[in-house]
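Quick illustration, no need to memorize.
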Amino acid sequence: MISSHKPLYRTRLGQAIVGDSLILLDEFESNSVDLVITSPPFALQRKKEYGNKDQEQYVDWLLGFISKVKRVLRETGSFVLDLGGAYEKGLPVRSIYNYRILVRACDELGLRLAEEFFWFNPAKLPSPIEWVNKRKIRVKDAVNTIWWFSKSDFPKADVRKVLVPYSDRMQQLLKNASKFYKPKSRPSGHDISSAFDRDNGGAIPSNLLAIPNTESNSKYMRHCKMAGVEYHPARFPLELPTFFIQFLTDPGDLVLDIFAGSNTTGEAAESLDRKCLALEIEHSYLAASAFRFVDELNPEGARELYSHLIEASSVDKFIAPGQTSLMFVSDRKASYRGQKTRKRL
């Protein structure tokens, strides 16, 4: 896909490339990507270690990426953008930067808003401290806006792939529908037909995604701790990209994350048999993200693997047929299989 840039590592179905996605996107073929899903650094007033932009610059900065995303999307493709909320500097007044991005992406770049989603993180700590904890004049900010953009009016999508379990009440109704309702028109105007009690395998999900971000002992985090590496401070939960990848793509489709961070998107895509490209400008973040794709390591193996990745310009990783452990092969001529390391002459 990007012939002039060797990946830092490969997986069975994906590649992870260190670089500025604003530049790397120019090397993609037009109409070549089925889904772009990403969570960029948010437009916060306080600088974070993952490199967020000031609100004044943020909208124009992000639109530069979005214009290039539109070019690489297939006509049936989708662009899912996770954006956290923010306050105006020094004021208990919300910024509307995320809505400015929505309006300008549609009005100026010609993207379609297929649907808006809201990610509710019930585990999020109360913030901002000044208005919520100290002065107690605002409630905690626990919802991110997620814009599902499309290039056309009818992007690929199938809600049957993301059905959720029926409620207890609905399960009772399916067992004995006549006990709970009779087909007729409701005051709301909805016409409840006799097919209402059909079991479709699950309920249609809403656009409010309640997903707690409570990762605390994942393989990625364990290996980062073993290697003495700080894990990415703003990861989204695996369930979030999993939902959209299942909903908007088919096995074998290409998924792209232009702000990959710890490459949660790549892990989700790989588990669902989708191809994935992860682009990330911070070498250290992408090097640590390889821990998502290896077998369990001991501390020595984790430190050696991270050191190898952080020093190497590129590392290929693959799974040999019939094997469960992963092998890394790089220009430094060192290979990894599980916890064993051997030098090759």
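Residues 317-345 have pLDDT under 50 and may be disordered.
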